[in-house]
Design brief:
six-stranded antiparallel beta barrel, alpha/beta, 3 domains, Elongation Factor Tu (Ef-tu), domain 3, Rossmann fold, single chain, SH3 type barrels
């Protein structure tokens, strides 16, 4: 048994619920669990998806093959379950997904922030409500197809969330909200393998999804046109306004603040001798602030809505590495003890386009210390 699967109560023959999206990763997770002597039970969520995008011309295959909210994904998960001979359940959580993920996405854009919808989905749906439903089936352990490791230390009795072996697929950034209680029941079978090894597992098991492409879109917006989605939401916040320089000079007019994000250069509709970038978004004055490239660098940030994996808030400053976006590299920084629910982070070198609404995740080596939501940069 791999080190990342060792923990109290987990023995061969144990039933393990597996979150199956219909993709190759979660399907291979079932295969790996079977090979380790466990009894997988497939569970799939039926989630809300933007029906208007479908009506705008996407075929069923184009729409429903995209993302973990798709009907095609459910059908693929059912086929895999039949092929591997395991039970499979579908849970309808469309209303919960709409409130916790989609409406949160809309609220954040309306407030001038740029959200990552996968994080609240993991936090409130997959590792909260879905785990509760799994427990109602009498199943204690829950597995997903994330590329991360969950290491149990028998001396301390603590669990550590660590980066996956395949650094190009590592998803630890998305899971910083996990708690010790959740990690005690979680298995991540893919943590020590590469993507190609996972695909080969699926091929060896003759799974139809072995060559299925990874989804890159926002799962609930099948045409990936988030701007049109914001317009269709009827947001009163999408109003034209001024584009201002850092000095307050009017340079032009924007189409609506939710259409822009900090660090954006293209699509501003401005003429300038040097490239201009979005420096700040001010919903109070409905103004878009732009400047030159050197003005989008920050020496640090403040984060709120914090979570620390070990359940202990740092009492003194800590040397960490931080990621300010999912695909961003880790950079050295100092994490200061949180005060009134907020933490200050100062980078060793200035970072480009620190974006309010995105997650900042703290690491020590391969281990996730915790993270939070970027409130503002400094």
């Amino acid at each position: 048994m791999r080190q990342s699967q060792q923990r109290p109560g987990l023995t061969k023959g144990t039933k393990v619920a597996v979150a199956m999206s219909g993709g190759v990763d979660s399907s291979a997770a079932v295969v790996l669990l079977q090979e380790s002597g466990f009894e997988p039970v497939g569970v799939t969520l039926r989630l809300w998806v933007d029906g208007e995008a479908i009506r705008r011309g996407l075929s069923r295959q184009e729409e429903e093959g995209k993302g973990c909210t798709s009907l095609q994904g459910i059908e693929d998960a059912q086929k895999v379950a039949r092929r591997l001979g395991i039970p499979h359940y579908v849970f309808d959580m469309q209303e919960d997904f709409l409130e916790k993920v989609v409406n949160h996405f809309l609220r954040e854009y309306k407030s001038g922030r740029t959200p990552n919808p996968c994080i609240p989905c993991n936090r409130y749906l997959k590792f909260s409500l879905l785990m509760q439903r799994v427990r109602s089936l009498g199943i204690i352990f829950f597995a997903t197809g994330h590329y991360v490791k969950n290491i149990y230390d028998p001396l301390s009795g603590k669990y550590s969330l660590c980066r996956g072996t395949d650094q190009s697929k590592d998803q630890s950034y998305m899971l910083y909200t996990l708690s010790q209680e959740q990690l005690a029941g979680l298995i991540f079978p893919l943590g020590e393998l590469t993507k190609e090894e996972i695909r080969q597992k699926a091929r060896d098991a003759a799974l139809e999804v072995a060559e299925k492409k990874d989804s890159q879109e926002i799962c609930f917006i099948p045409d990936n046109d988030y701007r049109s989605f914001l317009v269709r939401s009827g947001s009163e916040a999408i109003l034209p306004g001024d584009i201002l320089s850092v000095a307050g000079e009017k340079l032009g007019e924007h189409k609506g603040l939710p259409f822009y994000t900090v660090g954006q250069r293209k699509g501003l509709g401005l003429t300038s001798t040097e490239p201009l970038y979005v420096i700040d978004i001010n919903p109070k004055s409905n103004a878009l602030i732009v400047g030159h490239e050197d003005e989008i660098y920050s020496r640090g940030l403040t984060a709120d809505d914090l979570n620390f994996i070990w359940g202990e808030t740092p009492a003194e400053e800590m040397q960490v590495q931080v990621k300010i976006r999912y695909r961003a590299p880790s950079v050295p920084a100092i994490l200061y003890p949180p005060e009134k629910g907020e933490a200050k982070i100062i980078f060793s070198q200035q970072q480009k386009a620190v974006t309010p609404g995105q997650a900042v995740v703290f690491y020590r080596g391969e281990e996730v210390v915790g993270g939070g939501t970027i409130k503002e940069y400094c």
